[in-house]
Sequence to fold (95 residues):
Amino acid sequence: LSCVSVIMVCGAMVFFPAILVVTLYNQFFQKRKKTFQFFLCHHKTGAGSFARLMKMELENSKSVTRQVFLDCDHLMDLEVLFDQVASLTETLVIV
Fold:
Protein backbone atom coordinates (compact mmCIF):
# COMPACT_ATOMS: atom_id res chain seq x y z
CA LEU A 1 0.00 0.00 0.00
CA SER A 2 2.82 2.42 0.77
CA CYS A 3 4.46 1.68 -2.60
CA VAL A 4 1.23 2.66 -4.37
CA SER A 5 1.11 5.89 -2.36
CA VAL A 6 4.69 6.75 -3.34
CA ILE A 7 3.89 6.12 -7.02
CA MET A 8 0.77 8.31 -6.81
CA VAL A 9 2.67 11.16 -5.14
CA CYS A 10 5.51 10.96 -7.68
CA GLY A 11 3.01 10.87 -10.53
CA ALA A 12 1.26 13.93 -9.16
CA MET A 13 4.57 15.75 -8.82
CA VAL A 14 5.22 15.18 -12.54
CA PHE A 15 1.65 15.50 -13.84
CA PHE A 16 0.54 18.76 -12.21
CA PRO A 17 3.57 20.87 -13.23
CA ALA A 18 3.19 19.60 -16.80
CA ILE A 19 -0.46 20.69 -16.83
CA LEU A 20 0.57 24.07 -15.42
CA VAL A 21 3.20 24.57 -18.14
CA VAL A 22 0.75 23.66 -20.93
CA THR A 23 -1.92 25.96 -19.49
CA LEU A 24 0.48 28.91 -19.16
CA TYR A 25 1.80 28.36 -22.67
CA ASN A 26 -1.71 28.37 -24.13
CA GLN A 27 -2.64 31.46 -22.12
CA PHE A 28 0.35 33.64 -22.96
CA PHE A 29 2.07 32.44 -26.11
CA GLN A 30 -0.56 30.95 -28.36
CA LYS A 31 -2.86 33.31 -30.26
CA ARG A 32 -6.43 32.33 -29.58
CA LYS A 33 -8.68 32.09 -32.58
CA LYS A 34 -12.20 33.36 -32.15
CA THR A 35 -15.13 31.25 -33.31
CA PHE A 36 -16.50 33.78 -35.78
CA GLN A 37 -14.18 35.58 -38.18
CA PHE A 38 -17.01 37.95 -39.16
CA PHE A 39 -20.21 39.01 -37.43
CA LEU A 40 -22.68 40.55 -39.88
CA CYS A 41 -25.03 43.06 -38.29
CA HIS A 42 -27.71 44.43 -40.62
CA HIS A 43 -30.95 46.42 -40.79
CA LYS A 44 -33.66 43.76 -40.80
CA THR A 45 -35.78 44.95 -43.71
CA GLY A 46 -33.31 47.08 -45.64
CA ALA A 47 -30.18 44.96 -45.78
CA GLY A 48 -31.11 41.36 -44.96
CA SER A 49 -30.67 40.10 -48.51
CA PHE A 50 -27.40 41.98 -48.92
CA ALA A 51 -26.10 40.53 -45.63
CA ARG A 52 -26.98 37.01 -46.85
CA LEU A 53 -25.12 37.65 -50.12
CA MET A 54 -22.14 39.03 -48.20
CA LYS A 55 -22.09 35.93 -45.99
CA MET A 56 -22.14 33.65 -49.03
CA GLU A 57 -19.28 35.59 -50.65
CA LEU A 58 -17.23 35.58 -47.46
CA GLU A 59 -17.71 31.84 -46.99
CA ASN A 60 -16.51 31.24 -50.56
CA SER A 61 -13.40 33.36 -50.00
CA LYS A 62 -10.17 31.44 -49.38
CA SER A 63 -9.03 34.02 -46.83
CA VAL A 64 -11.99 33.31 -44.55
CA THR A 65 -11.06 30.27 -42.48
CA ARG A 66 -13.67 30.41 -39.72
CA GLN A 67 -17.41 30.87 -39.42
CA VAL A 68 -19.38 33.94 -40.50
CA PHE A 69 -22.15 34.90 -38.06
CA LEU A 70 -25.46 35.98 -39.53
CA ASP A 71 -28.17 36.32 -36.91
CA CYS A 72 -30.87 34.30 -38.65
CA ASP A 73 -28.43 31.37 -38.96
CA HIS A 74 -26.70 31.34 -35.57
CA LEU A 75 -28.68 33.43 -33.10
CA MET A 76 -30.47 31.16 -30.64
CA ASP A 77 -30.69 33.41 -27.58
CA LEU A 78 -30.88 37.20 -27.82
CA GLU A 79 -29.48 37.59 -24.29
CA VAL A 80 -26.08 36.22 -25.30
CA LEU A 81 -25.77 38.37 -28.43
CA PHE A 82 -23.47 41.00 -26.89
CA ASP A 83 -21.25 38.31 -25.38
CA GLN A 84 -20.95 36.61 -28.77
CA VAL A 85 -19.91 39.87 -30.41
CA ALA A 86 -17.46 40.77 -27.66
CA SER A 87 -15.76 37.47 -27.01
CA LEU A 88 -16.33 35.22 -30.04
CA THR A 89 -16.05 37.65 -32.97
CA GLU A 90 -12.92 38.90 -34.67
CA THR A 91 -14.50 41.46 -37.06
CA LEU A 92 -17.85 43.22 -36.73
CA VAL A 93 -19.44 44.31 -40.05
CA ILE A 94 -22.40 46.71 -39.90
CA VAL A 95 -24.58 46.85 -43.03
Summary: The chain is about 55% helix and 15% strand. The mean pLDDT is 81. Residues 9 and 85 are 44 Å apart (CA to CA). Residues 2-28 form the longest helix (27 residues).
